[in-house]
Amino acid sequence: MTMQNFFDALRARIYGDEEKKWVLGTGIEAIEEKLWNSREGPPPFDQQKLPLRSSLGIVTYLFKSKRML
């Protein structure tokens, strides 16, 4: 795994968690209304600022996943 791939995987994991929170908060039935021709625009996702402890947890998860492949 190159450094670029590593940071891409870390970023994808962080924003994937934010997307899950948005879906759960919006509700499965309302997702289509929110995304398809919505006047509200795309859902807002703030740039994440992770504490070191959270980052290390994600890094550990990524390395364990890589070993399983």
Topology:
Elements: H1 3-26, H2 31-35, H3 52-68
Helix pairs in contact: 1-3
Secondary-structure element order, N to C: HHH
Count of domain modules: 1
Distance between the first and last residues' Cα: 12 Å
- The number of helical segments is 3
Helix content: 55-70%
> What is the molecular shape?
elongated
Radius of gyration: 15 Å
> Percent of residues in beta strands?
under 5%
Organism: Solanum commersonii (Commerson's wild potato)
Keywords: ATP-binding, Chloroplast, Nucleotide-binding, Plastid, Transit peptide
GO molecular function, one term: ATP binding
Pfam family, one: RuBisCO_activase_AAA_helical
Describe it for me?
It is built from three helices and no strands. The protein has helices at 3-26, 31-35, 52-68. The chain is elongated. The model has no long low-confidence stretch (mean pLDDT 77).
Question: Any descriptors?
Answer:
single chain; 69 residues; mainly alpha; 3 helices; elongated
Briefly summarize what is shown.
With 69 residues, this protein is mainly α. The chain is 67% helix and 0% strand. It has one domain (3-68).
